[in-house]
Amino acid sequence: QRQPTQTPAEFASFVSDRLAQKLAEAELPQFPQRICEAFYRIRFGGENLDASELEWIDAKLTSFESIMSQPPQPTSV
To answer: What are the pLDDT digits (tens) for 14-72?
Structure first.
């Protein structure tokens, strides 16, 4: 959960660092930053996302949800 003192970009960086392995497994290493960039474009740039961008986000969110719902893998020694 984003802290009140974190910007969305700081939170995206935190999530990327914290979930680096899971994001890499799902082939989503830059996903938090890409979502943050889209948010900034909409929120501060007044832009709209086109259909292909929305489809990409939806597909990647599905992949992200899938990888996050998997139980943690035991670490080998």
So the answer is: 999 999 988 998 889 999 999 999 999 999 999 999 999 999 999 999 988 988 888 76
Nearest CA among 51, 31, 43 for reference residue 7: 43
- Asked if 12 and 33 touch (Cβ cutoff 8 Å), the reply is yes
Residue type, 62: T
User: Taking a C-beta distance cutoff of 8 angstroms, is the pair 23, 31 a contact?
Assistant: yes
**HEC profile for the chain?**
CCCCCCCHHHHHHHHHHHCHHHHHHCCCCCHHHHHHHHHHHHHCCCCCCCHHHHHHHHHHHHHHHHHHHCCCCCCCC
pLDDT tens digits for 14-24?
999 999 988 99
